[in-house]
Amino acid sequence: MARFGLLPAIVALGTLFVVPPMVKTETFITAETTGILLIEGGECFSDPAYSPGAAERIVLYTPCADGADNQSYGFTHMPDGPYDPAGLSAFAWRSCGERYAELWGGGRDDLDFYPIMPTAETWADGDRDVMCAVYHPTGRLSGSALKTSFT
């Protein structure tokens, strides 16, 4: 019985080092996040990080082969109209989800996706594009997640 006395402590200590899955939402990165508008379809990029030189949060292009936090896998265009955050969010999640299902179906349960949407400010400037991004919730992508060429 004494030999099991350390087991709860070891299990508790082990849970301190378990990385919980990250959930990225439509507010994680927006069209106003510096650097995101430079990312093209199929390219990989970093999570936003504060840059002292820029004095703001930025994302950077990262070669997919080097491992990255995110990868763009498609774009969708929202029709013109008044800025409607709820409608835009529903459209973005639905359209990115449909593209995700086309590319990965049920075959990649280690990935998740999120939309990168226009904000009220970028919408006023004519931005109607939603970028769809894929990521690994418990770590970095080990290379390109796309199994086919980007279209």
Question: Would you write up a description of this structure?
Answer:
With 151 residues, the protein is α+β, with helices and mostly antiparallel strands. It is built from three helices and seven strands. The strands form two sheets. A five-stranded antiparallel beta sheet has the order 4-1-5-7-6, with helices on one face. A two-stranded antiparallel sheet has the order 2-3. Strand 2 and strand 3 form a beta hairpin. The longest helix is centred in the middle third of the chain and has 20 residues. The radius of gyration is 19 Å and the shape is globular. The chain starts with 6 loop residues before the first helix and ends in a 16-residue tail after the last strand. The mean pLDDT is 86.
Number of helices: 3
Structural class: alpha+beta
- Tell me the series of helices and strands, N- to C-terminal: HEEEEEHEHE
Q: What value does the Rg take, in angstroms? A: 19 Å
Strands, count: 7
- End-to-end CA span: 61 Å
Largest beta sheet: strand ordering: 4-1-5-7-6
Query: Which stretches are poorly predicted, pLDDT < 50 over at least 5 residues?
Result: none
Assign a percent range to the helix content: 10-25%
* Main sheet: strands, sense, barrel: 5 strands, antiparallel
Give the overall silhouette: globular
Mean pLDDT, all residues: 86
Q: How large a portion of the residues is in β-strands, by DSSP E? A: 15-25%
